[in-house]
Design a protein that fits this description.
Order of helices and strands: EEEEEEHEHE
Structural class: alpha/beta
Number of strands: 8
Largest sheet: 6 strands, mixed
CATH topology: Metallo-beta-lactamase, Chain A
Distance between the termini: 30 Å
Shape: globular
CATH superfamily: Ribonuclease Z/Hydroxyacylglutathione hydrolase-like
Radius of gyration: 14 Å
Length: about 110
C-alpha cells in the first residue's frame, strides 16, 4: 500500500483557515474543511497548487469530494472557492442548512 498524503492547505498551525488535503493512492482524495481566518474573509487556499507525492503529482482541486466538518467561518468560510470543483460537498445536517441559507450550493448529507 502506498503512503497516505496529508497536507495543510490553510493556515496550520494557527487558528483559522482550516483546510486539509488527504490523498489515499488508488482509493480517493478529498479536502477536509475550507475556512478563512476569523478576522478576514480572504481565503487564498492552495487548492489549485500541485504537490509531489511519492513521485506522482497531486492537485487538491481535482479531489473526489469535500467534507465540511461544521459551519464556523474558520472551517467553512471559503466554500465559495470550491464552487468550481466538480465534486460533491458533504456536511452534517445543521451545517448543511446554514450553508444553503447563505449560499446557493448543493450539499449532500
Amino acid at each position: 500500500m502506498d503512503n497516505i498524503y496529508i497536507r495543510s492547505l490553510g493556515n496550520a498551525p494557527f487558528i483559522g483557515k482550516a483546510c486539509i488535503f488527504v490523498d489515499i493512492p488508488g482509493e480517493c482524495s478529498f479536502i477536509l474543511d475550507a475556512g478563512t481566518t476569523v478576522d478576514s474573509n480572504q481565503a487564498s487556499l492552495q487548492i489549485k497548487k500541485q504537490f509531489n507525492h511519492d513521485g506522482r503529482t497531486v492537485i487538491p482541486f481535482e479531489s473526489d469530494f469535500v467534507f465540511i466538518s461544521h459551519g464556523h467561518q474558520d472551517h467553512a468560510g471559503a466554500i465559495e472557492q470550491l464552487k468550481e470543483m466538480n465534486c460533491p460537498i458533504y456536511s452534517g445536517g445543521p451545517s448543511k442548512c446554514f450553508f444553503e441559507l447563505g449560499r446557493r450550493m448543493k450539499f449532500i448529507i
